[in-house]
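Final report, section 2: Outcomes. Of the targets proposed, CRISPR-associated endoribonuclease is the one most frequently requested by collaborating groups, and we therefore present its record in full.
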Amino acid sequence: MRFKLLLVSKNSNPTIPINYQYPLSAAIYKILQKADVDYATFLHEEGYVVDDGLKHFKLFTFSDLNCRFKIKGDRMLINSAVELVVSFHLPEAAQHFVKGLFLSQDIDIADKKSKATFKVNSVEAMSDPFSVIENKVNNTIAVRPISACVAGIKNDKDDYDFMPPTDERFALCIQYNWEQKLKALKIPFNENELKVAINLKNTKPKSRLITIKAFTKQQTRIKGYLNFDMEFTGSQEQLQVIYNAGAGLYNALGMGCLELIK
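The predicted structure is given below as C-alpha cells.
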C-alpha cells in the first residue's frame, strides 16, 4: 500500500537539512501517533520481530523528496511543491484509514539549524501492481530504488560495512534482509525459490552518504546507492513485502523505497 503526498510549504523560504531522512521519519511517526498511539508505539519501540527477538522491522519506507531545490552547504533550499511517496506493508482494507491520517496534516522537517513546515495538500492512493500478478512462486518484478538502497554486513565492532551493488555480496544481503522480513511476518518461503538479481546495464551506481541524528551524540552515517536496477523473484505475497516495506537496511529511515520498471 503506497501513497503519493503533495507537500506545500507554510514558510516563504523553506530550508531543510540535506540529511532530512531522520526528521522526516520522525514526522511520519508523529502523524501515525495522532491516530493510533498503540500502533505508532509498536512501530517505534517493537516492530515485527524475527524468532530470535534481535531483529525488528517497521515495514514501511518512503522515497526521496521530489522537488526543485538548491544546495547551500548542508542545507536544501526548496523552491517548489514537494512530492513524497510513502509505502506501508498493511492490508488494503486499511487504505482509507491511512490516507485519512495524512490529509491536511503538517510535516515538520527540522534539526538544530533549520526548520520548515509543510502541509499535506493532497494524498493519492497509488495503484496496486500486484492485483494483476498471479500468486505463483516464480513471478519476477523489475524495480529501481527511489531512495538510497543500503546493504551491509556487521563487523567486529557491531557496525555495518556497507557495500555497493557492484559487490556480489550486495544481492545476498538484500535477499537475506527480505527473508528476515518474511520470517517476521510468518510468510513461508523456500530459499531456492527467492531470487535477487542486480542489473547494472550501462549505468554506474551513485553512492549517497547520509547522516542520521545529526548534531547529537548518536550521530551516525550510512551509505546507500541509487541509479541501478534489481529483479526479485518470488510469489505474489513475498514480492508485496519487498515492494511495500523496502529493500535492504534502514527502510523506516527512508532507505530502499522501490518503484516498478514499466
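Residues 53-57 have pLDDT under 50 and may be disordered.
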